[in-house]
Specification:
Number of helices: 21
Shape: elongated
Helix content: 55-70%
Number of strands: 4
Strand order of the largest sheet: 1-2
Length: 548
Amino acid sequence: MVAQLEHQFRMGRLSIQGLWFYCQPMMGSMQALSSVIRKASANNYAGSAVLNLLQSQAKAMAGDNAVRSLLEKMTQSASSAYLCILERWIYEGVIEDPYGEFFIAENKSLQKESLTQDYDRKYWRHRYSLKEDIPSFLANIAGTILTTGKYLNVMRECGHTVQVPVSENSKLTTFGSNHQYLECVKAAYEFASGELLSLINEKYDLIGKLRSIKHYLLLDQGDFLVHFMDIAREELLKKHDEISEEKLQSLLDLALRTTAAAADPCHEDLTCCVERSSLLKGLSRLKDIDIKSVSDSNDLEEPISITGLETFSLSYKIHWPLSIVISRKALTKYGLIFRFLFHCKHVERQLCGAWQLHQGVRALNSHGTAISRSSLLCRSMLKFVNSLLHYLTFEVIEPNWHVMHGRLQAAKSIDEVIQHHDFFLDKCLRECLLLLPELIKKVEKLKSLCLQYAAATQWLISSSIDIPKLDQSDGSVGSEKPKQWKSRNLQAQKVMTRNSAVTDSVLKFEREFNAELQSLRPILSSSSRAEPYLTHLAQWIVGVGNDQ
């Protein structure tokens, strides 16, 4: 058109009417270009917004082939540089975007080292993120594009040089109705996902690390814990603010080196810490799980004095890139489960000690004393704690672990691995009663009664075994001197008074334990309708009550 106008002008034949005639075929295209320029300028469009504007205008001009072809050609030309940025991202995991036009934003302030401290896993979720303006032809696969580059970036951060194999057919030079660019993105994603998963599993041994964490934080391998509880008993009995974490760590290292745990190459990554609050308070601070209004409960009172036995916890040193899966959030949940199991183990050990004391006086004549009744109570308490531990380990942790292990083996991406691992932890927390405040508070009350009883057992038994000795006499009462008889009578009265106090104490423990057990039963029964996994625990608790 321009050549025609110039020719007519040189020939002196160009008039206003001729100019209008020659411009007429291009008026629609010029008007469309004017509209695009006005909208782009008025809204300060750039990058994705310009591409979307050109595409929408081309669709709006579907009835005018010339205008539509012009706008589509402009879209192809404008997207050429954009597709170069996209190609670099999905094939190398690098954003080369000097003008900020790409639809993926990079937050360089977030570093991978933050994963070990940041509960919310911000690095993984926000280091790279989608902007609001996404080209319409990439909208359906924007998440896949983001994930592909993230996976490649992780491998690059690990020092693992990797690049998606590129052929002539995989060049992102244009987009069109054949959707060839979609196949390129899909192939790049599958390659990046498979490579990262292989790197995590083979070089960094994710499954081995998770198995090691299970040994220690889920008490799958308990010999080191028994030894540790023996040698650290004195330190753990102190108030939480008086405990030396350095001393506990040295004792933990000693227990690990002198038991079967020494054969585990990961045992040196195990660390200990002393929390500053009770387990219930720790549970109320979980950010991402509904704990059924546990944080709003008015009776979540902090104990006046809590010792290391209630606040001791284990943690684990996790390094990049395993910190993507085993994040600070995951370790916090592992720690809460460990604290519950550890305290249950402590209660069991104390009751076993009390049971041994009872067994030690079986040969003595305990007729007329409270020992026999105390022995029955001790057995019921032991059965309760053993049933609880059996439920936690064999009904909750073990089956859920096997399910997670199978899912991890079949996972196709690292995001699936994260999802399965987080699901495992959340399910264990819930099924271990830790997210059911009404139940966990009842269990904690029962454990507290068991500890009080175990602590009083030494006094109960020592106060009772003197009675049969006083009943035995080498001679008749008449043959004794009056002073001796009076002294013996006073001593017998003291013993009878003490025996009455012992009996009252045993009966008090028995009443309180039975009352708590009876109140727990209906809560478990009603909860098991909504939470079927509680059925076995409810049956065992009923069995404990029936033994009374």
